Amino acid sequence: IVGSGASGLPAAIRARDLNASVIVVEENFDIGGHGIISQGSVALGGGTSVQKKHGVKDSADQVYLENTRPDHVHTRYADRKVVRAFADHNVETFEFLLANGVRFVDVRPMTIPAEGFLTPRRQTTYPWSQDLKETINNTAGSGLMRALEKSARAKGVEILLQHQMTRIVREKPTSGRVLGISVTNLEDDSTINIRARQAVIACTGGSSSNLVIRTIYNPLLTEEYQVGCEPYSRQSGDAEQQGMAIGASLGGTNNMRTESYLALVKPQWLGARYGYDRWKPGGPVFDKAGASGIPVQDYQDLILVNMLGARFYDETVGVHLFNTDGNSDPVFDYLAAAVSSAVIEVNGVKQRAGGPVWAIFDADAVTREEWDPRPPFVDIENGYFFSADTLEELARKLTRNVYQKTPMAPAALTGTVTRYNSHVDLGQDPDFNKPTPRYKIQTPPFYAAWATPILHDTYSGLRVNEKFQVMDIFGQVIPGFYCAGESAGGFALHGLGRATVGGYIAGTNAAKERV
Q1: Model pTM score
Q2: What is the CA radius of gyration of the chain?
Q3: Distance of alpha carbon 279 from alpha carbon 270, whole angstroms
Q4: Where are the alpha helices (H) located in 106-246, listed in sequence order?
Q5: Are 128 and 144 in contact (CB under 8 A)?
Q6: 302: closest CA among 448, 197, 109?
Q7: Nearest to 446 by CA among 356, 357, 359, 360
Q8: How many Cα atoms are found within 13 Å in the side-chain-facing hemisphere of 473?
Q9: Cα separation of 332 and 306, whole Å?
Protein backbone atom coordinates (compact mmCIF):
# COMPACT_ATOMS: atom_id res chain seq x y z
CA ILE A 1 0.00 0.00 0.00
CA VAL A 2 1.42 3.36 -1.03
CA GLY A 3 0.48 6.08 1.45
CA SER A 4 -0.47 6.04 5.13
CA GLY A 5 -3.33 8.52 5.08
CA ALA A 6 -7.09 8.25 5.45
CA SER A 7 -7.38 5.65 2.69
CA GLY A 8 -4.04 3.87 3.07
CA LEU A 9 -4.39 2.85 6.72
CA PRO A 10 -8.00 1.60 6.43
CA ALA A 11 -6.90 -0.41 3.38
CA ALA A 12 -3.97 -1.84 5.35
CA ILE A 13 -6.04 -2.82 8.39
CA ARG A 14 -8.85 -4.31 6.35
CA ALA A 15 -6.45 -6.40 4.25
CA ARG A 16 -4.66 -7.54 7.40
CA ASP A 17 -7.99 -8.50 8.99
CA LEU A 18 -8.47 -10.77 5.96
CA ASN A 19 -5.09 -12.44 6.63
CA ALA A 20 -3.03 -10.68 3.97
CA SER A 21 0.53 -9.64 4.82
CA VAL A 22 0.69 -5.88 4.40
CA ILE A 23 3.45 -3.33 3.96
CA VAL A 24 2.75 0.40 3.79
CA VAL A 25 5.19 2.73 2.05
CA GLU A 26 5.10 6.38 3.17
CA GLU A 27 7.32 9.18 1.83
CA ASN A 28 6.86 11.41 4.90
CA PHE A 29 8.72 11.19 8.22
CA ASP A 30 5.46 10.22 9.95
CA ILE A 31 2.08 8.76 9.09
CA GLY A 32 -1.27 10.40 8.48
CA GLY A 33 -1.07 12.36 5.25
CA HIS A 34 -3.70 15.08 4.87
CA GLY A 35 -5.91 13.19 7.29
CA ILE A 36 -3.82 13.98 10.35
CA ILE A 37 -3.77 17.71 9.49
CA SER A 38 -7.54 17.77 8.86
CA GLN A 39 -10.29 18.76 11.25
CA GLY A 40 -11.29 15.11 11.60
CA SER A 41 -14.68 15.53 9.94
CA VAL A 42 -15.89 12.20 8.55
CA ALA A 43 -19.09 12.09 6.46
CA LEU A 44 -20.46 8.55 6.70
CA GLY A 45 -24.12 7.58 6.85
CA GLY A 46 -26.60 5.04 5.65
CA GLY A 47 -27.81 4.29 9.16
CA THR A 48 -24.71 4.27 11.35
CA SER A 49 -24.92 3.66 15.08
CA VAL A 50 -24.31 7.37 15.74
CA GLN A 51 -27.07 8.42 13.34
CA LYS A 52 -29.52 6.03 15.01
CA LYS A 53 -28.55 7.28 18.46
CA HIS A 54 -29.36 10.85 17.47
CA GLY A 55 -32.53 10.08 15.54
CA VAL A 56 -31.18 10.61 12.02
CA LYS A 57 -32.98 8.47 9.47
CA ASP A 58 -30.73 7.37 6.61
CA SER A 59 -30.08 4.47 4.24
CA ALA A 60 -27.54 3.33 1.69
CA ASP A 61 -29.99 4.29 -1.05
CA GLN A 62 -30.26 7.80 0.40
CA VAL A 63 -26.46 8.13 0.52
CA TYR A 64 -26.31 7.08 -3.13
CA LEU A 65 -29.13 9.31 -4.36
CA GLU A 66 -27.88 12.43 -2.57
CA ASN A 67 -24.34 11.95 -3.87
CA THR A 68 -25.48 11.58 -7.48
CA ARG A 69 -27.92 14.52 -7.57
CA PRO A 70 -28.13 16.00 -11.09
CA ASP A 71 -29.10 19.44 -9.72
CA HIS A 72 -25.94 20.18 -7.74
CA VAL A 73 -22.51 21.15 -9.07
CA HIS A 74 -20.76 18.90 -6.57
CA THR A 75 -22.64 15.69 -7.32
CA ARG A 76 -23.87 15.79 -10.90
CA TYR A 77 -20.70 14.41 -12.49
CA ALA A 78 -20.20 11.46 -10.14
CA ASP A 79 -19.45 7.95 -11.39
CA ARG A 80 -22.65 6.22 -10.32
CA LYS A 81 -21.08 2.77 -9.87
CA VAL A 82 -18.34 4.15 -7.62
CA VAL A 83 -20.86 6.10 -5.54
CA ARG A 84 -23.09 3.01 -5.28
CA ALA A 85 -20.16 1.03 -3.84
CA PHE A 86 -19.38 3.89 -1.49
CA ALA A 87 -22.98 4.07 -0.29
CA ASP A 88 -23.23 0.33 0.29
CA HIS A 89 -20.11 0.30 2.49
CA ASN A 90 -20.75 3.41 4.64
CA VAL A 91 -22.15 1.65 7.67
CA GLU A 92 -19.60 -1.15 7.83
CA THR A 93 -16.74 1.32 7.33
CA PHE A 94 -18.01 3.50 10.16
CA GLU A 95 -18.29 0.55 12.51
CA PHE A 96 -14.84 -0.60 11.31
CA LEU A 97 -13.41 2.77 12.39
CA LEU A 98 -14.99 2.42 15.82
CA ALA A 99 -13.68 -1.14 16.16
CA ASN A 100 -10.17 0.12 15.40
CA GLY A 101 -10.13 2.72 18.14
CA VAL A 102 -11.44 5.86 16.45
CA ARG A 103 -13.48 8.01 18.85
CA PHE A 104 -16.05 10.51 17.63
CA VAL A 105 -17.47 13.47 19.52
CA ASP A 106 -20.88 12.39 20.80
CA VAL A 107 -23.08 14.97 19.10
CA ARG A 108 -25.69 14.83 16.38
CA PRO A 109 -24.06 14.53 12.93
CA MET A 110 -24.16 17.66 10.77
CA THR A 111 -24.28 18.48 7.10
CA ILE A 112 -22.66 21.01 4.75
CA PRO A 113 -25.22 21.57 1.96
CA ALA A 114 -22.53 22.98 -0.35
CA GLU A 115 -21.24 19.39 -0.65
CA GLY A 116 -24.56 18.23 -2.09
CA PHE A 117 -25.93 15.82 0.50
CA LEU A 118 -28.59 17.02 2.93
CA THR A 119 -28.88 14.22 5.48
CA PRO A 120 -26.72 14.79 8.60
CA ARG A 121 -23.66 12.53 8.27
CA ARG A 122 -20.61 14.54 9.32
CA GLN A 123 -19.14 13.72 12.70
CA THR A 124 -15.79 14.78 14.14
CA THR A 125 -13.06 12.81 15.86
CA TYR A 126 -11.40 13.79 19.11
CA PRO A 127 -7.78 15.00 18.84
CA TRP A 128 -5.36 12.24 19.78
CA SER A 129 -3.60 14.37 22.41
CA GLN A 130 -2.27 17.85 23.05
CA ASP A 131 1.27 16.84 22.12
CA LEU A 132 2.37 18.53 18.88
CA LYS A 133 4.88 15.76 18.24
CA GLU A 134 2.01 13.29 18.12
CA THR A 135 -0.65 15.40 16.46
CA ILE A 136 1.64 17.45 14.12
CA ASN A 137 -0.65 20.51 14.43
CA ASN A 138 -3.09 19.65 17.26
CA THR A 139 -5.97 19.13 14.86
CA ALA A 140 -8.79 16.64 15.35
CA GLY A 141 -7.69 14.52 12.40
CA SER A 142 -4.95 13.19 14.63
CA GLY A 143 -7.61 11.22 16.50
CA LEU A 144 -8.51 9.37 13.32
CA MET A 145 -5.02 8.71 12.03
CA ARG A 146 -3.21 7.86 15.28
CA ALA A 147 -5.96 5.42 16.24
CA LEU A 148 -5.67 3.68 12.87
CA GLU A 149 -1.87 3.66 13.07
CA LYS A 150 -1.99 2.06 16.52
CA SER A 151 -4.38 -0.62 15.31
CA ALA A 152 -2.43 -1.28 12.11
CA ARG A 153 0.86 -1.74 13.93
CA ALA A 154 -0.76 -3.96 16.59
CA LYS A 155 -2.15 -6.19 13.85
CA GLY A 156 1.23 -6.60 12.17
CA VAL A 157 1.15 -4.05 9.36
CA GLU A 158 4.69 -3.00 8.48
CA ILE A 159 5.14 0.73 7.78
CA LEU A 160 8.18 2.06 5.94
CA LEU A 161 8.55 5.79 6.54
CA GLN A 162 10.62 8.08 4.29
CA HIS A 163 10.25 5.72 1.35
CA GLN A 164 8.82 7.17 -1.86
CA MET A 165 7.32 5.10 -4.64
CA THR A 166 9.11 5.87 -7.90
CA ARG A 167 7.70 3.15 -10.17
CA ILE A 168 4.84 0.68 -10.44
CA VAL A 169 6.16 -2.57 -11.93
CA ARG A 170 3.96 -4.43 -14.42
CA GLU A 171 4.68 -7.68 -16.28
CA LYS A 172 4.96 -5.72 -19.51
CA PRO A 173 5.13 -1.92 -19.85
CA THR A 174 1.37 -1.56 -20.45
CA SER A 175 -0.04 -5.08 -20.10
CA GLY A 176 -0.16 -7.97 -17.69
CA ARG A 177 -0.34 -8.04 -13.95
CA VAL A 178 1.08 -5.44 -11.55
CA LEU A 179 3.95 -7.16 -9.77
CA GLY A 180 5.03 -4.56 -7.21
CA ILE A 181 6.74 -1.22 -6.81
CA SER A 182 10.15 0.39 -6.74
CA VAL A 183 10.77 2.83 -3.90
CA THR A 184 13.55 5.22 -2.95
CA ASN A 185 14.78 5.32 0.63
CA LEU A 186 14.87 9.08 1.18
CA GLU A 187 17.43 8.78 3.99
CA ASP A 188 20.18 7.15 1.93
CA ASP A 189 18.84 7.44 -1.66
CA SER A 190 18.92 3.66 -2.13
CA THR A 191 16.39 1.80 -4.26
CA ILE A 192 14.25 -1.04 -2.97
CA ASN A 193 12.03 -3.29 -5.07
CA ILE A 194 8.98 -4.66 -3.25
CA ARG A 195 7.11 -7.64 -4.70
CA ALA A 196 3.34 -7.63 -4.24
CA ARG A 197 2.05 -11.19 -4.06
CA GLN A 198 -1.56 -10.10 -4.46
CA ALA A 199 -1.91 -6.40 -5.21
CA VAL A 200 -0.66 -2.83 -5.01
CA ILE A 201 -3.07 -0.26 -3.56
CA ALA A 202 -2.16 3.35 -4.40
CA CYS A 203 -3.34 5.84 -1.78
CA THR A 204 -1.02 8.78 -2.43
CA GLY A 205 -3.55 11.50 -1.63
CA GLY A 206 -4.38 13.24 -4.88
CA SER A 207 -2.38 15.36 -7.29
CA SER A 208 -2.78 19.01 -6.29
CA SER A 209 0.92 19.31 -5.38
CA ASN A 210 1.99 17.88 -8.73
CA LEU A 211 2.38 20.70 -11.24
CA VAL A 212 2.24 18.37 -14.24
CA ILE A 213 -0.92 16.55 -13.19
CA ARG A 214 -2.84 19.51 -11.80
CA THR A 215 -2.33 21.48 -15.00
CA ILE A 216 -3.88 18.60 -16.94
CA TYR A 217 -7.12 19.49 -15.18
CA ASN A 218 -6.61 23.26 -15.13
CA PRO A 219 -3.67 24.80 -17.01
CA LEU A 220 -4.03 28.02 -14.98
CA LEU A 221 -2.85 26.37 -11.74
CA THR A 222 0.79 27.32 -12.11
CA GLU A 223 3.58 27.04 -9.56
CA GLU A 224 2.63 29.89 -7.22
CA TYR A 225 -0.44 28.16 -5.77
CA GLN A 226 0.26 26.24 -2.59
CA VAL A 227 -1.75 23.24 -1.40
CA GLY A 228 -3.74 22.64 1.77
CA CYS A 229 -1.86 20.46 4.31
CA GLU A 230 1.54 21.44 2.93
CA PRO A 231 4.30 21.56 4.07
CA TYR A 232 3.52 18.41 6.08
CA SER A 233 1.71 16.39 3.45
CA ARG A 234 1.96 16.59 -0.31
CA GLN A 235 -0.75 15.65 -2.75
CA SER A 236 2.04 14.09 -4.74
CA GLY A 237 0.28 12.78 -7.85
CA ASP A 238 2.53 9.70 -7.66
CA ALA A 239 -0.36 7.28 -8.12
CA GLU A 240 -1.65 9.20 -11.12
CA GLN A 241 1.73 9.68 -12.78
CA GLN A 242 3.10 6.19 -12.20
CA GLY A 243 -0.29 4.68 -12.96
CA MET A 244 -0.54 6.41 -16.31
CA ALA A 245 3.01 5.25 -17.08
CA ILE A 246 1.75 1.64 -17.06
CA GLY A 247 -1.41 2.36 -19.04
CA ALA A 248 -3.93 3.50 -16.44
CA SER A 249 -6.65 5.95 -17.37
CA LEU A 250 -7.78 9.07 -15.55
CA GLY A 251 -11.42 9.05 -14.49
CA GLY A 252 -14.11 11.55 -13.62
CA THR A 253 -11.97 14.43 -14.79
CA ASN A 254 -14.91 16.84 -14.97
CA ASN A 255 -15.08 16.75 -11.17
CA MET A 256 -11.69 18.48 -11.00
CA ARG A 257 -12.99 21.90 -11.94
CA THR A 258 -12.53 25.04 -9.90
CA GLU A 259 -16.33 25.44 -9.58
CA SER A 260 -16.22 22.64 -7.02
CA TYR A 261 -16.33 23.16 -3.29
CA LEU A 262 -12.81 23.50 -1.81
CA ALA A 263 -10.91 22.66 -4.99
CA LEU A 264 -9.42 26.17 -4.97
CA VAL A 265 -10.09 28.62 -2.14
CA LYS A 266 -9.18 31.98 -0.65
CA PRO A 267 -6.59 31.53 2.11
CA GLN A 268 -7.82 31.58 5.68
CA TRP A 269 -4.53 33.01 6.96
CA LEU A 270 -2.55 35.80 5.31
CA GLY A 271 1.11 36.70 5.34
CA ALA A 272 2.36 33.11 5.19
CA ARG A 273 3.00 30.73 2.32
CA TYR A 274 0.79 27.98 3.76
CA GLY A 275 -2.47 29.70 4.62
CA TYR A 276 -4.97 26.84 4.60
CA ASP A 277 -4.54 25.98 8.26
CA ARG A 278 -2.85 27.91 11.05
CA TRP A 279 0.46 26.21 11.72
CA LYS A 280 1.29 26.21 15.40
CA PRO A 281 4.72 27.30 16.68
CA GLY A 282 6.54 24.41 18.29
CA GLY A 283 5.12 21.84 15.89
CA PRO A 284 7.43 19.53 13.92
CA VAL A 285 6.89 21.35 10.60
CA PHE A 286 6.56 24.95 11.77
CA ASP A 287 10.04 25.87 10.55
CA LYS A 288 9.04 24.74 7.05
CA ALA A 289 5.72 26.57 7.27
CA GLY A 290 7.51 29.81 8.13
CA ALA A 291 4.65 31.48 10.00
CA SER A 292 1.17 30.86 11.34
CA GLY A 293 -0.50 33.65 9.35
CA ILE A 294 -3.00 36.32 10.37
CA PRO A 295 -6.80 35.95 10.07
CA VAL A 296 -9.09 38.51 8.45
CA GLN A 297 -12.17 39.48 10.43
CA ASP A 298 -13.40 42.08 7.94
CA TYR A 299 -12.26 42.43 4.33
CA GLN A 300 -13.23 46.10 4.53
CA ASP A 301 -9.87 46.50 6.26
CA LEU A 302 -7.83 45.78 3.15
CA ILE A 303 -7.76 45.55 -0.62
CA LEU A 304 -6.51 42.63 -2.68
CA VAL A 305 -4.30 43.30 -5.69
CA ASN A 306 -2.75 41.07 -8.33
CA MET A 307 0.96 40.93 -9.03
CA LEU A 308 0.73 44.15 -11.07
CA GLY A 309 -0.81 46.07 -8.18
CA ALA A 310 -4.37 46.24 -9.55
CA ARG A 311 -7.59 45.31 -7.77
CA PHE A 312 -9.53 42.61 -9.59
CA TYR A 313 -12.69 41.77 -7.59
CA ASP A 314 -14.81 42.61 -4.55
CA GLU A 315 -12.57 41.60 -1.65
CA THR A 316 -15.47 40.65 0.63
CA VAL A 317 -16.64 37.68 -1.44
CA GLY A 318 -16.36 34.37 0.38
CA VAL A 319 -17.42 30.75 0.17
CA HIS A 320 -21.12 30.40 1.02
CA LEU A 321 -21.01 27.07 2.84
CA PHE A 322 -24.77 26.86 3.15
CA ASN A 323 -25.66 27.48 -0.47
CA THR A 324 -28.14 24.72 -1.34
CA ASP A 325 -29.23 25.58 -4.86
CA GLY A 326 -26.25 23.95 -6.58
CA ASN A 327 -25.33 27.08 -8.53
CA SER A 328 -21.83 28.46 -8.84
CA ASP A 329 -20.76 30.48 -5.85
CA PRO A 330 -19.47 34.05 -6.47
CA VAL A 331 -16.13 32.96 -5.01
CA PHE A 332 -15.43 31.07 -8.23
CA ASP A 333 -15.63 34.30 -10.23
CA TYR A 334 -13.25 35.80 -7.68
CA LEU A 335 -10.84 32.87 -8.13
CA ALA A 336 -11.04 33.08 -11.92
CA ALA A 337 -10.12 36.75 -11.72
CA ALA A 338 -7.33 36.05 -9.24
CA VAL A 339 -5.59 33.57 -11.55
CA SER A 340 -6.12 35.54 -14.78
CA SER A 341 -6.49 39.28 -14.16
CA ALA A 342 -2.86 40.28 -14.62
CA VAL A 343 -2.04 41.13 -18.25
CA ILE A 344 1.64 41.36 -19.08
CA GLU A 345 3.56 41.85 -22.32
CA VAL A 346 5.91 39.04 -23.37
CA ASN A 347 7.93 39.38 -26.58
CA GLY A 348 5.67 42.16 -27.77
CA VAL A 349 2.34 40.38 -27.22
CA LYS A 350 -0.09 40.50 -24.33
CA GLN A 351 -0.54 37.47 -22.11
CA ARG A 352 -2.69 36.73 -19.09
CA ALA A 353 -0.90 35.53 -15.98
CA GLY A 354 -1.58 34.45 -12.45
CA GLY A 355 1.12 35.28 -9.95
CA PRO A 356 0.82 36.37 -6.34
CA VAL A 357 -2.21 38.05 -4.83
CA TRP A 358 -1.36 40.57 -2.09
CA ALA A 359 -3.47 42.00 0.69
CA ILE A 360 -2.64 45.71 1.02
CA PHE A 361 -3.47 47.56 4.25
CA ASP A 362 -2.16 50.19 6.64
CA ALA A 363 -1.40 50.74 10.32
CA ASP A 364 -5.03 51.63 11.06
CA ALA A 365 -6.16 48.23 9.74
CA VAL A 366 -3.61 46.50 11.97
CA THR A 367 -5.16 48.26 14.95
CA ARG A 368 -8.74 47.45 13.94
CA GLU A 369 -7.94 43.77 13.29
CA GLU A 370 -5.69 43.54 16.36
CA TRP A 371 -2.94 41.92 14.29
CA ASP A 372 0.63 41.45 15.37
CA PRO A 373 2.57 42.03 12.12
CA ARG A 374 5.69 40.23 13.34
CA PRO A 375 7.02 36.66 13.33
CA PRO A 376 5.88 34.02 14.12
CA PHE A 377 2.54 35.34 12.86
CA VAL A 378 3.87 36.54 9.48
CA ASP A 379 6.70 35.29 7.30
CA ILE A 380 9.05 38.18 6.64
CA GLU A 381 12.20 36.12 6.17
CA ASN A 382 10.91 34.14 3.18
CA GLY A 383 9.20 37.05 1.46
CA TYR A 384 5.51 36.52 2.24
CA PHE A 385 4.99 39.67 4.30
CA PHE A 386 6.35 43.19 3.76
CA SER A 387 6.08 46.61 5.35
CA ALA A 388 7.25 50.07 4.29
CA ASP A 389 6.73 53.71 5.12
CA THR A 390 5.48 54.47 1.59
CA LEU A 391 3.45 52.54 -0.96
CA GLU A 392 6.19 53.06 -3.54
CA GLU A 393 8.75 51.42 -1.29
CA LEU A 394 6.33 48.59 -0.51
CA ALA A 395 5.84 47.80 -4.21
CA ARG A 396 9.59 47.69 -4.83
CA LYS A 397 10.12 45.23 -1.95
CA LEU A 398 7.78 42.59 -3.37
CA THR A 399 10.36 41.23 -5.80
CA ARG A 400 11.93 39.53 -2.78
CA ASN A 401 9.17 36.96 -3.14
CA VAL A 402 10.23 34.12 -5.42
CA TYR A 403 6.90 34.10 -7.26
CA GLN A 404 6.75 37.87 -7.88
CA LYS A 405 8.59 37.46 -11.18
CA THR A 406 7.22 40.64 -12.70
CA PRO A 407 8.12 43.75 -10.66
CA MET A 408 5.12 45.70 -9.39
CA ALA A 409 5.32 49.28 -10.64
CA PRO A 410 5.24 51.65 -7.64
CA ALA A 411 2.99 54.04 -9.55
CA ALA A 412 0.51 51.23 -10.20
CA LEU A 413 0.08 50.38 -6.53
CA THR A 414 -0.08 54.06 -5.54
CA GLY A 415 -2.71 54.68 -8.21
CA THR A 416 -4.79 51.71 -7.09
CA VAL A 417 -4.78 52.84 -3.47
CA THR A 418 -5.55 56.46 -4.41
CA ARG A 419 -8.50 55.34 -6.50
CA TYR A 420 -9.78 53.05 -3.75
CA ASN A 421 -9.54 55.86 -1.20
CA SER A 422 -11.71 57.97 -3.50
CA HIS A 423 -14.31 55.16 -3.43
CA VAL A 424 -14.36 55.46 0.38
CA ASP A 425 -15.14 59.17 0.01
CA LEU A 426 -17.81 58.32 -2.56
CA GLY A 427 -19.34 55.56 -0.41
CA GLN A 428 -19.46 53.11 -3.28
CA ASP A 429 -17.13 51.02 -5.43
CA PRO A 430 -17.87 51.63 -9.14
CA ASP A 431 -15.07 49.23 -10.15
CA PHE A 432 -16.07 46.00 -8.36
CA ASN A 433 -19.15 46.83 -6.24
CA LYS A 434 -17.52 46.20 -2.89
CA PRO A 435 -20.31 47.06 -0.44
CA THR A 436 -19.83 50.62 0.90
CA PRO A 437 -16.01 50.83 1.15
CA ARG A 438 -15.30 52.00 4.70
CA TYR A 439 -11.63 52.62 5.35
CA LYS A 440 -8.93 54.48 3.49
CA ILE A 441 -5.42 53.07 3.23
CA GLN A 442 -3.47 56.13 4.30
CA THR A 443 -1.58 55.66 7.58
CA PRO A 444 2.00 54.33 7.46
CA PRO A 445 3.49 51.89 7.77
CA PHE A 446 1.87 50.11 4.83
CA TYR A 447 1.77 46.34 4.53
CA ALA A 448 1.57 43.65 1.85
CA ALA A 449 0.59 40.14 2.96
CA TRP A 450 0.58 37.00 0.79
CA ALA A 451 -3.08 36.22 -0.04
CA THR A 452 -2.73 33.90 -3.03
CA PRO A 453 -5.47 31.25 -3.53
CA ILE A 454 -4.89 27.75 -2.19
CA LEU A 455 -5.45 24.38 -3.83
CA HIS A 456 -7.15 21.96 -1.49
CA ASP A 457 -9.09 18.85 -2.53
CA THR A 458 -8.32 16.70 -5.54
CA TYR A 459 -11.59 15.50 -7.04
CA SER A 460 -10.27 13.36 -9.86
CA GLY A 461 -7.63 10.70 -10.33
CA LEU A 462 -7.15 7.23 -11.74
CA ARG A 463 -10.25 5.61 -13.17
CA VAL A 464 -11.54 2.88 -10.84
CA ASN A 465 -14.49 0.51 -10.86
CA GLU A 466 -16.81 -0.37 -7.99
CA LYS A 467 -14.11 -2.63 -6.48
CA PHE A 468 -11.63 0.26 -6.69
CA GLN A 469 -9.60 -1.67 -9.25
CA VAL A 470 -7.75 0.65 -11.62
CA MET A 471 -8.89 0.67 -15.25
CA ASP A 472 -6.63 1.11 -18.26
CA ILE A 473 -7.09 3.44 -21.23
CA PHE A 474 -9.11 0.72 -23.01
CA GLY A 475 -11.55 0.31 -20.11
CA GLN A 476 -10.07 -2.96 -18.84
CA VAL A 477 -9.06 -3.79 -15.29
CA ILE A 478 -5.32 -3.69 -14.60
CA PRO A 479 -4.82 -6.92 -12.63
CA GLY A 480 -3.40 -6.45 -9.16
CA PHE A 481 -3.74 -2.66 -9.11
CA TYR A 482 -6.12 -0.72 -6.85
CA CYS A 483 -6.47 2.95 -5.96
CA ALA A 484 -8.40 4.78 -3.24
CA GLY A 485 -8.78 8.18 -1.63
CA GLU A 486 -8.15 11.42 -3.48
CA SER A 487 -6.07 9.67 -6.13
CA ALA A 488 -9.14 7.67 -7.23
CA GLY A 489 -11.40 9.41 -9.73
CA GLY A 490 -15.14 9.40 -10.12
CA PHE A 491 -16.45 11.00 -6.94
CA ALA A 492 -16.25 14.60 -5.69
CA LEU A 493 -17.24 14.18 -2.04
CA HIS A 494 -15.05 16.36 0.16
CA GLY A 495 -13.03 14.83 2.93
CA LEU A 496 -12.36 11.76 4.98
CA GLY A 497 -15.53 9.77 4.31
CA ARG A 498 -14.67 9.16 0.68
CA ALA A 499 -11.10 8.24 1.60
CA THR A 500 -11.87 5.81 4.43
CA VAL A 501 -14.55 3.93 2.50
CA GLY A 502 -12.43 3.72 -0.64
CA GLY A 503 -9.54 2.32 1.36
CA TYR A 504 -11.82 -0.17 3.09
CA ILE A 505 -13.24 -1.42 -0.23
CA ALA A 506 -9.83 -1.59 -1.91
CA GLY A 507 -8.31 -3.46 1.04
CA THR A 508 -11.21 -5.92 1.06
CA ASN A 509 -10.94 -6.78 -2.60
CA ALA A 510 -7.15 -6.73 -2.83
CA ALA A 511 -6.88 -9.23 0.04
CA LYS A 512 -9.19 -11.58 -1.86
CA GLU A 513 -7.05 -11.54 -5.03
CA ARG A 514 -6.23 -15.03 -6.25
CA VAL A 515 -3.03 -15.16 -8.26
Answers
A1: 0.96
A2: 24
A3: 12
A4: 132-135, 141-154, 211-217, 238-245
A5: no
A6: 448
A7: 360
A8: 8
A9: 16
